[in-house]
Model the fold of this input.
Amino acid sequence: MIKAVLNIKNQDFINRNLNADAATLLLKKQPELDVDIKILVEQIESKKRCEKKLSSWFKTPNIYYPNKLNIEQTSSEVTAKYKASLISGNSIIDLTGGFGVDCFYFSKQFQSVTHCEINEELSQIVKHNFQQLVIKNIDTAATDGIQYLKNNPSTFDWIYIDPSRRHDSKGKVFFLNDCLPNVPEHLELLFKCSSNILIKTSPLLDLSVGINELQHVKTIHIVAVNNEVKELLWVLQKDYNEDEILIETVNLTSSKIDRFSFKFNQENSAEVLYSLPLTYLYEPNTAILKAGGFNSVSKQLQLKKLHQHSHLYTSNKLIDFPGRSFKIEDILPYNKKQLKKTGIEKANITTRNFPDSVENIRKKLNIKDGGSIYIFATTNMENVKLLIICSKLS
Done:
């Protein structure tokens, strides 16, 4: 951490050039600056990435930014705020603190927070930034989180860990056993220090694989932002019976929060009814699709599925649905001649359980992208390929 970066003239340079071209700045002589221009450009690029993702940091004066990779890997404020809403208590330790976004929000739910970060420079940056953000109940430790627990026999109400998915020798990995630190390997130690553990993993981790790698999983949260799954959150409770694992799905948007939950072990046995398309069509959000709660959606919301593998639902009565809702305007066979009669030349096309790609469908049907018409290319309960023409409701 180069403290001169925080000087008024250097901060002014950073703020004045947030929208400037980085290559141009690097080539232009800046005699008034007393810090290497490469360092300031790195600050500019990292700060720019925080404008929407970490607006609290972006709006706060004299924040020191790490490299772009640290910004890319950190939680967004939206997801950090959500995960902090799930837990509370007197004390929590973050074993893989990173840029400190999660700890910032944990500090609003806990009396004391310990932030462990093995990268000494990043730990120093985070400590400085917490001072600028006027956060006083976070202690920073420039050390490996697992080693910290081994050296300090303290107990905590909660342990939080976001294992790195970049392995030194294997590159990018997705199994927990391959992440750093290896959480399954250290579970005994973790449960000695706390009865409650919260783990953040890649959205690509298969739920069944994660359950098999871990112990005493109580709840799994699938967190999507604007219909893009961002992270999986695993709540572990000491001695919890894994036969009762709850799956919580959430899609966070600026206007609303869609929630849906179900018991993991009850999904396969949930009774499903099937129907040909009725008046309304529903498409689950990505969090539900990731969770695989397809039968539970049908049972809990009293909706009928179009096909076992289509994952589209229908009803005659409109309901508040955790995903997209549509009014069915027409139902056609997958046939260019039939579609041409409708006069549709532009539409948004989605495929569900359909042999052709969206690109091929556009070519075959001569349909441009966009507009207010939505077409679902799918398969019905009678295994007929069809096009469902819709208008979007939500």
In short: The chain has three domains: 3-71, 74-263, 280-392. The first strand starts at residue 89 and ends at 94.
